[in-house]
Amino acid sequence: MLPDGATAVITGGGQGIGAAVARVLARAGARVMVAGRTQATTERVAGELVDAGFEAHAARVDVTDAASVTALVEEAQGRLGTVDILINNAGQAHSAPIVRTTLEDWHRMLDCNATGTFLCTRGFLPGMLERRWGRIINIASVAGLSGAKYIAAYSASKHAVMGFTRSAAHEVADKGVTVNAVCPGFVDTPMTEQSVANIVAATGKSREEALSAILQMTPQGRLIAPEEVAHAVLMLAATEAKGINGQSIVIDGGGIQA
Question: In which domain, by residue range, is 217 found?
Answer without folding.
Answer: 189-223
